[in-house]
Amino acid sequence: MSSTAPANSRDSQATNTTDYLDGPRLLADIGGTNARFALERAPGQIASIRVLRCADHAEFALAVETYLAETQHPTVRHAAIAIANPVQGDEIKMTNHHWAFSIEATRRRLNLDTLLIVNDFTALAMSLPHLEPAHLEAIGNGKSRAGGVIGLVGAGTGLGVGGLIPTAGRWIALGSEGGHVTFSPTDQREIAVLQYCWTRYPHVSAERLVSGPGIELIYQALAARSGSAVEPLTTPEIIRRALAGADADALCLEVVDCFCGMLGTVASNVAVTLGTLGGIYIGGGVVPHLGEYFARSPFRARFEAKGRFGDYLSQIPTFVITAPYPAFVGVAAILSEHLGGGNAIPILERIRKSRSTFSPAEQKVASLILAHPRAVMNDPISEIARRAEVSQPTVIRFCRSLGCQGLADFKLKLASGVTGTVPVSHSQVHVGDSSLDVGVKVVDNTISAMLEVRDNLNAETLSAVIDALSQASRIDFYGFGSCGLVANDAQQKFFRLGIPTSAATDPQVQEVSAAMLRPRDVAVIISNSGKMRHLAPAVEAALASGATVIALAPANSQLAKRAHLTLAVEHDEGSAAHIPMVSRILLLLLIDMLAVGVSLNRSSPFAELQRQAKRGILNHTAPAPGLEAARLDDDGAPQVPVISHTA
Fold this sequence. Notes:
Binding site for ATP: 28-33
Protein name: Glucokinase
Number of strands: 19
Number of domains: 5
Distance between the termini: 71 Å
Radius of gyration: 31 Å
CATH topology of the largest domain: Hexokinase, domain 1
Oligomer: single chain
Largest sheet: 6 strands, mixed
CATH class of the largest domain: Alpha Beta
Domain SIS: 465-604
InterPro entries: ATPase_NBD, Bacterial_glucokinase, Glucokinase, Homeodomain-like_sf, HTH_RpiR, RpiR-like_SIS, SIS_dom, SIS_dom_sf
Subcellular location: Cytoplasm
Helix content: 40-55%
C-alpha cells in the first residue's frame, strides 16, 4: 500500500514547506497487526506512506530497514515512532505482538541521531491541535474555547482516555488509564448488561464494554436479557447488520445504540473531570465504521445528560477524528518540538556538517562524538581527551566552536539531541549486553532512581528529621553490608559537624550501643529492605532507652513501622546479582541531604537563637538573649545546645 497524505496542519507547520536541512524524518505507527511508515520531508509534508504487516518481519528494526529500502534508502537522522504499547524505559516488549527491542540499540543499528518511542494514544492526542477542520466531524453543538483543555476518548481494541493541557505556548499530553475506571450504568438496560458481565468478571471496567470487543459482549448481554437464542457474531458483523437500513437486525441496532450511549457517558465524564472547554475528540477504530449513523445516535444526547451540568456540557463541542493517519501528525509534532522546531539543526548534525571546518585535533573529537554520543555524555573531560587522543583544552575549544559555553553545556545539548533529555529512564541489564550498553544502563538506572527519590521527598518529614539530628546530643548510625558502608560514611560526615557520632555494623555492637543511648540521642537505622531480622534487638533497645529512632528504609517496611520518623527509599534491586546496588547510592544521597541540612541548621544564627529559646523553655529558664550568651566548652568553642526530645 502506498499513498501520499495530505497536509495535516492548521498552524505553524503549514507555513513552512522548506525541506529539513538534515534530511527527511521517519515517522511510524506500530500496531499489533500493521506497521505504518512515512517520511516527513518538510514541516507538514508527510509522504511515502507504506503499510507493512508486522507478521512478515521478525524484528521491528527489520521492518524499518525494509521500508527504507522500498523508499530507496533516504538519509534519515531522526525518527519518531508511535506504538500500541506502554513505553517505560529503554526496553519495549509489545503486548499484542512478539516484537521486543531496546530503543538505544535500535537507534545505533539504524544509524539514527534521534529515536523517540511514544505511546500511540499520546501521539493521537498530540495530533489534535494540528488537524485540519476537514479531518474532523462535529457531533452536536458547542464551540471550542481558545486555550482550553482538550479531551480525547478512543474506542478500539481497548478504550483510551487522554487529554492535552495548554501551557506556555505548547501542549502537554496527559497520560491516563481512564479506560479502566469502573463502568457505571445509566438506565435499566445498562444495569442488565452490567449484571450479565458480573457473571463473568469480578470487576467490569468501562473498557470492557466501550470498545470493539465490548460490542460483542453487549450483544451477548442483550440477547440473554431478551431470552433470544442468537448466533455468535463478531463486532464488524454486528455493525454491518445494525446499519443495513430497512433490513437492519433489531438486536444489532439496539447493541450499537447502547454502545454509543455508553461512549457518550464516558466522554462526558472525561469532559467534566478535565474541564475540556477545548472540546472532546473521539478516535479509535470503532466510531469511524459507524459512518453517518453516529451523528444521530444517542451519543450526543447522553453526553449532555448530566443533570445540573447539562448546560455546561452543551457548550463543549465533540468531534470525530476522520484523518486517515493522525498518529503521523502527532509523532511529527512531538519530534519537531523535541528537535527544537522548524529547521533547527540538532547538535550531532551540526558537528557532521561542520566537520571540515574543524582543526585536525578538533576533528578527532568530532569523530569520537559521532561514533559514541551516549558514551561521551557520561565521560569526564579527561576520558574524552584520552579517547580522542587530544588535549583537554582542545575538547573545550571544540565545544565553544559549536556555540556552547563549555563541556557541561555541550553535554546537555548532546543529550537533548540523542534522547530528548538527559537519559534517566530505567532499563533492564541483560546477559549479552555490550560493555557500553551495561555502562549506559547502570548510569541511567541510577539517575532515574535518584530523580524518583527527589520527586517523592516528603518536605515535612525531611524537616523533622533534620531538626531531630540538629538537636541531638549523640547520633548512632546502624547498618549491615552495603548499608554498613552508608553508616560509616554518615559517621564521617556528621562527626565533622561537631556532633558526637558512632557507626556500628555488627548486631551485638549495635544492641549494646543502642542500650546506652539517652532521650536526647538519635539512632539512625539504615536498611534497603527494612526487614527487622537482624535489626530488631538494636531498634528495641534504642526505643527502650528513650532515643529518637529514624529509619532510612522503604516506607511500609517493618523498620518504618517501628521508627519515629522514616525517610523512604523505595527501590527494588530486582536481583541480588546486580552488584551496583542503586539503593546504596540512594541512601548515600539521603545522608548527604541530612548532613547539608543539619550543617545549615546549626550554622544559622537564627536557628541558634531558636535552639537556645527552646532550651530555655524546656528547662524552665529564660532563653539566652543572643549568640553571645551561648555557653562555651573547654576549648572555648560554642557548646552544642541540646533539648529534651519526645518523639
